[in-house]
Design goal:
The complex is a heterodimer of chains A (278) and B (375).
Chain A: H1 23-36, E1 44-48, E2 63-66, H2 72-82, E3 87-93, H3 94-100, H4 102-111, E4 115-121, H5 156-162, E5 167-172, H6 176-188, E6 193-198, H7 214-224, E7 225-227, H8 228-232, H9 236-239, E8 243-250, H10 257-272
Parallel strand pairs in A: 1-2, 1-3, 3-4, 4-6, 5-6, 7-8
Antiparallel strand pairs in A: 5-8
Helix pairs in contact in A: 1-6, 3-4
Chain B: E1 3-8, H1 9-19, E2 24-27, H2 34-43, E3 50-53, H3 57-69, E4 74-78, H4 80-96, E5 100-108, E6 114-118, H5 123-128, E7 137-139, H6 144-161, E8 164-170, H7 171-175, E9 177-182, E10 224-226, H8 240-255, H9 258-261, E11 264-267, E12 274-278, H10 280-295, E13 300-305, E14 307-309, H11 313-319, E15 325-330, H12 336-343, E16 349-354, H13 363-374
Parallel strand pairs in B: 2-3, 2-4, 4-5, 5-8, 7-8, 12-13, 12-15, 15-16
Antiparallel strand pairs in B: 1-9, 5-6, 7-14, 11-13
Classes of the chains: A alpha/beta (278), B alpha/beta (375).
Chain lengths: 278, 375
């Protein structure tokens, strides 16, 4: 048994994911990050919303919570506030995190509450059969954009940077070791962190866009992604269709929310009382 | 020593919640419930308890459920529009069997309605607001001392039955300042099941009608909690037999314990010929009206429901053996009257006094209705 396997709940297998899905790689990389940090499985809680990503917690041998669509961050906020010393991990898909849960995403970032979010971006609503999401690239065909997608997609990196997130990174399922490394780094960050993982849904996105095999689709992901220094050399027009990789934001100076609450607000309330009271 | 004070209804709720051991509040501002959040934001940090203002009501109840699963006693407070948003997570709390208390200080509806006017029009929403078959407990105090005692009881029932409990108030009860007796700590029951060590994954395994044991994260054995229908381990399962069992377990933990859950008060009911059925602010007017009616020689009585859901069916049925006239008084276009009608046997005359224009009933109005009905 490899060291990361104690974080996998084999008894709940098989997973509901299609053969070749990137979710398996992400499951493994998260478990590997747990192992490298040598965490007690009972000190971890993994939470997810709805969708293919939503089923991932079931397969971790940690405390796990499967919640409602887009709201995983709200449950995570309650758990983190109740038990600040625990590792609170949220797994979310692109529809879950940026459409129905978009509001919770920007507010968690703004608060800088120490939740570790893995945002799986496969650019599609996979579980419901392949409808357009806020991260579907322009002109792509989906079940609800049969004439091509006319909406621009969110730039998660810029969105979260604008929301004052203190850790923002992007990786792909093609690079397991880098992915594990970035996830581990995000777990070590004190405040709110988001690792966006570019993943493949060859079944529900690729199939309708001439990329029906996992190999073709992961090659496509390889072609549209590049390390930040290479991305910066591109013209703005070229940048529009590419995705830089790496850690974009890492700010350890801003205090984490539960730290602020329990170590600053609570003592202040006990000593001096609320504003104007004493 | 108990303390006699003049306090706003919302503040009585907040004080009672803290007395019941509430150590986590997440909420979103909304008239006429905001004072509860404001009071908590000020008092909870002093007690090393947790307050957070979330981005909306969906998030507020989500945070409460999360904190509850991490071992806290949780409360959120809202009014109609916020209660509508919360319905998604009321269902989640029912499905995952998580204790949480939700205060709904009712205001005029539908939609944004009348934020500063009272109503009793979320009675059915409290019962059926979230989708799917589900058990629910809803309490509705009327008098100041009851606001305290029913708030404490709401926490006790949530903890005991691992279910969301809805505490209904109306704008008048929430906003009005009233004379109240704050009882001495220790003089009332506070139910708090210490989390037992979790040794296996059979967290939902129990017999029909039994209270579930408290299940929390971080207690030595990693567990799985799901919003999907699940088996005794909490794993997702759509197996017909398993689903059938889980549906019944959730329902029967409430319906086999009605004696513990249902509370009501009866005034002058022993020889009453006209029964007024009412609750909340309307029950206060009704009681005044019943007393005046008695002075005028009319044999009127009041049945005041404190537990709204589950409906006090058996107690009413008992009363209908003697009292053959029932007048339902409520501030809506007719909601609980249907429950009364369902319970009342043939031959019982049914009358209503209904209004949903933001004006509470004056005792004289209820008195007129009693007199008319008693003829």
């Amino acid at each position: 048994m490899r060291d990361y396997e104690k974080y996998i709940r084999y008894r709940t297998f098989p997973t509901p994911w299609c053969p070749g899905c990137g979710d398996g790689v992400i499951l493994k990389s998260i478990a590997m990050a747990f192992a490298e940090l040598n965490l007690d499985p009972d000190d971890i809680v993994v939470i997810a919303g709805i969708g293919c990503s939503g089923r991932m917690p079931t397969y971790f041998n940690t405390n796990t919570l499967h919640t409602t669509h887009g709201r995983a961050l709200t449950f995570a906020t309650g758990i983190k506030l109740a038990k600040p010393e625990k590792l609170v991990v949220v797994i979310s898909g692109d529809g879950d995190a940026t459409a129905i849960g978009g509001n919770h995403l920007i507010h968690a970032a703004r608060r800088n509450i120490g939740i570790k979010m893995i945002l799986i971006n496969n650019g599609i609503y996979g579980m419901t059969g392949g409808q357009v999401s806020p991260l579907t690239p322009p002109s792509f065909f989906t079940e609800t954009t049969p004439y091509g997608n006319i909406e621009p997609h969110f730039n998660v990196r810029k969105l979260l940077t604008a929301a004052e997130a203190t850790f923002v990174a992007r990786e792909t399922v093609n690079r397991l070791m880098q992915l594990k490394q970035v996830i581990k780094k995000s777990f070590q960050h004190k405040g709110f962190s988001v690792v966006e993982v570019m993943s493949n849904c060859h079944v529900n996105l690729g199939r309708r866009n001439k990329m029906k095999s996992p190999l073709v689709m992961t090659k496509y992901i390889r072609d549209i992604t590049m390390n930040m220094p290479d991305f910066e050399k591109l013209s703005p027009a070229e940048q529009a269709s590419k995705y830089p990789l790496g850690v974009f934001v890492q700010n350890s100076e801003r205090l984490e929310y539960t730290d602020l609450y329990y170590n600053h607000i609570v003592p202040a309330a006990q000593q001096t009382g609320a504003k104007g009271e004493k | 020593m108990s303390q006699r004070k003049v306090l706003q209804g919302n503040i009585i709720v907040a004080k009672a919640a803290l007395a019941a051991g509430c150590d986590f509040f997440a909420g979103y501002p909304i008239t006429p419930s905001s004072e509860i959040a404001q009071y908590m934001s000020k008092e909870m940090p002093k007690m090393e308890r947790t307050f957070i203002q979330m981005e909306d009501e969906i998030a507020s109840l989500g945070a409460c459920i999360g904190a509850s699963l991490a071992g806290r006693k949780t409360l959120t407070a809202t009014s109609g529009p916020g209660f509508s948003l919360m319905q998604e997570h009321v269902g989640m709390a029912v499905m995952a069997e998580v204790p949480v208390v939700i205060v709904n200080v009712m205001r005029g509806g539908p939609s944004t309605g009348m934020p500063t006017k009272p109503a009793q029009a979320d009675m059915m929403q409290a019962r059926w607001g979230t989708h799917g078959d589900h058990p629910i407990i809803a309490l509705y105090p009327a008098f100041s001392d009851e606001i305290f005692s029913e708030t404490v009881r709401a926490f006790n029932l949530a903890e005991k039955y691992w279910n969301p409990v809805i505490l209904l108030l109306d704008e008048v009860l929430g906003k009005a300042h009233m004379d109240v007796e704050i009882p001495e700590p220790g003089s009332y029951e506070v139910y708090w099941e210490k989390t037992h060590e979790i040794k296996d994954l059979n967290i939902y395994d129990r017999n029909l009608g039994e209270n579930p044991p408290r299940i929390d994260f971080f207690h030595g054995y990693p567990i799985h909690i799901d919003s999907l229908e699940h088996d005794a381990h909490g794993w997702p399962s759509f197996d017909a037999k398993t689903v059938d069992k889980m549906q019944k377990l959730r329902m029967q933990k409430i319906y086999q314990n009605l004696d513990d859950i249902i509370r009501y008060k009866e005034y002058f009911m022993d020889d009453a010929e006209v029964m007024v059925f009412s609750f909340g602010i309307s029950a206060r007017s009704a009681l005044a009206a019943v007393k005046t009616a008695r002075e005028q020689g009319i044999k009127a009585g009041l049945f005041q429901a404190l537990t709204i859901w589950p409906f006090p069916r058996a107690a009413l049925q008992e009363r209908f053996k003697k009292t053959r006239k029932v007048l339902t008084v409520e501030m809506n276009m007719g909601q609980m009257k249907y429950e009364v009608e369902r319970v009342a046997p043939c031959g019982v005359e049914k009358q209503t006094l209904l209004r949903a224009n933001g004006m509470p009933f004056a005792p004289a109005e209820v008195l007129d209705a009693i007199k008319e009905f008693a003829k």
